[in-house]
Amino acid sequence: MHCYIWWATLTAVQLLQVSAVFRSLRNLRTGKRDGSVARLIMSFLDSRSINALMHSCYTSLSEFNVGDYVYYESITDRFPTFFEGAMIGKGGFGSVYKCEDRSYPCRRRVALKVITKASVVTYRSWKKIVTELEIMQDVDHHNVAKLLEVLQTPHHLVIVMEAGDGGSLMQAWRLAKEYKYDVEVLVANVVLQVAEGLDYLYHKKGIVHRDIKLENIVLSHDFKRVMIIDFGLAEYVKQCETQLFVPCGTAGYTSPENIRAVVERRRVYEALGETMHLADMYSLGVVAYVLLCGHMPVATRCFSSLYQNMLKGIRCVGPHWANVSDDAKSLVESLVKTNSFERATVAVIREHPFIQAKTPLIVEIVQRHMHKQTETERREVKEWVYVEPLSDHWDMIEVETVSAEENRGLALRKGSSTFGRVGFMNRLKSVVWD
């Protein structure tokens, strides 16, 4: 896929215009992809034919119809309020925008995941997108963001989703600190509702999310309702059967099972569906850990060191935990167990003293927050969410391209602290090995 065709008739500019999927073809004699077949084909073409081929490549990848989804000439034909400046997130295949849906006032505001067709050039990539759509169409739960509709334009596939008017969990955490809300109450409400959503996904639908983190959890405008979003890495599993899984997720949040596979340089690893569900619970534990103390559990640049620290066990100790209740610490430690089958399930979470004591108090935060919005945040409410600067794009890394040396000390750029002086781990990219 990453081979380039070096033929004399193409200039460097022309070469870049040829879509990557057409730069190499499978050689039936060797069984491998290389540029020899393409070079042979190109040797018979003149400059006009080459230009026509480049145009065909672009058209075939950017203007084809995707399924039976409704077709519009532009996104603004369906959403007149859509504009590029409303971007609130960016991923491997597209971007997410906030938007007002004037055709359905009951929806108020929605989130648009805009996928550029030309950026998805492999069958495997399209299969991921199709799986994401199938999963979102299949679920219906209070704690999972709903898929509202799917449409397409000549160049884009647009996924319209229910939006959390209160913004992401990270934004809610910042407001809770600013307005001096009881953060433990917010954490208890989030942990319980996300756990309920994950339990529904796994036990009712046979789905695991595989990328639970602060950015993939949103809240309603009053902070009462919590929703899981972004099913780009989610997949169907068989609960009682061993399956092969590709290690994926966000570094720092993903479970020891995933990190171990990366350290051992395995493209896939065997696991039960239950194990993958409990991996989601581990990620939820990391979310709670960060919200309560403002730091990631393990801060290291190296996957091997990360895994070794995970094996030692994660404890809620140190000066950052001085003002956190023992019950809160107990809940977090029950979720981030190294052994997946020792991790807390939703049944355990429901009965945990921390949840029992704190979740009823969310009513007080709801009342205070609504009052605060009425008094001082009318402008922010009209704008829906606080649009923050985007971090760098996620780094998509193939396992076979990472050397042993790089794997031992994969250097990821440091970013500015999200939680005061948190360190670089809160800016680690989503890493997907595919």
Notes on the structure:
This is Protein kinase. Keywords: ATP-binding, Kinase, Nucleotide-binding, Serine/threonine-protein kinase, Signal, Transferase. Belongs to the protein kinase superfamily. The protein is globular. The N terminus and C terminus are likely disordered. It is built from 16 helices and 16 strands. It folds into 3 domains: 51 residues, no CATH class; 93 residues, Phosphorylase Kinase, domain 1, CATH 3.30.200; 264 residues, Transferase(Phosphotransferase) domain 1 (Transferase(Phosphotransferase), domain 1). The longest helix is centred in the middle third of the chain and has 23 residues. The strands form 6 sheets. A 6-stranded mixed β-sheet has the order 3-7-8-6-5-4, with helices on one face. It has 434 residues and is an alpha+beta fold. It is 39% helix and 15% strand.
Structure at a glance:
By secondary structure, this protein is of the alpha+beta class.
Query: What would you call the structural class?
Result: alpha+beta
| Termini Cα gap | 13 Å
Q: What's the number of structural domains?
A: 3
**Sheet with most strands: strand arrangement:** 3-7-8-6-5-4
Largest sheet: 6 strands, mixed
GO molecular function, one term: protein serine/threonine kinase activity
Protein name: Protein kinase
Domain Protein kinase: 82-355
Family: Belongs to the protein kinase superfamily.
State the main characteristics.
six-stranded mixed β-sheet; globular; 434 residues; disordered C terminus; alpha+beta; Phosphorylase Kinase, domain 1; Transferase(Phosphotransferase), domain 1; two-stranded antiparallel sheet
